[in-house]
Amino acid sequence: MWVRNQRRNANLTVEQQSALERIVGWSWAPREDTWEDRLAEVARFFAAHGRVPRVRAEDAEEASLGLWASRQRRAANVRAMPYARLALWGEFARQLETDDFDS
User: Less Cβ around it within 10 Å: N or C end of the chain?
Assistant: First the structure.
């Protein structure tokens, strides 16, 4: 609760903001960071296996990642995600289509 309040507090001084940023693991946008981390996991999986993760994979990690990717693809198709995410997802999808994915 306290952390959420600090992120929303528009009256923090520069010193207070700096102090928060020195906390290991601090993020002003943790949901965005988590989303970007998950996208990077999908990218690494693709780079390692040459395909996107499967929803019905026997491996629980792959299945979880596949489900996340499937939900993101669906949200992107109906434009039901924030523009910044949509742009990142679109770039990722274009790289998959051109098979020019190297990260």
Answer: N
Q: Which residue has the tokens 């998950």?
A: 38
Per the domain annotation, does 60 fall within a domain?
yes
Q: Is residue 70 part of a domain?
A: yes
Smallest Cα–Cα separation from 3: which of 23, 13, 11, 14?
23
- Provide DSSP, 31-88: HHHHHHHHHHHHHHHHHHHSSPPPTT-SSHHHHHHHHHHHHHHHHHHTT-S-HHHHHH
Domain count, the chain: 1
Please give the average per-residue pLDDT across 7-28, as a whole number: 84
pLDDT band at 100 (very low <50, low <70, confident <90, very high): very low
Task: Give whole-number Cα distances, 25 to 29, 34, 103, in Å.
Answer: 11, 12, 24
Q: Which tokens sit at 15?
A: 């010193």
What local confidence, expressed as pLDDT, does residue 28 receive? 82
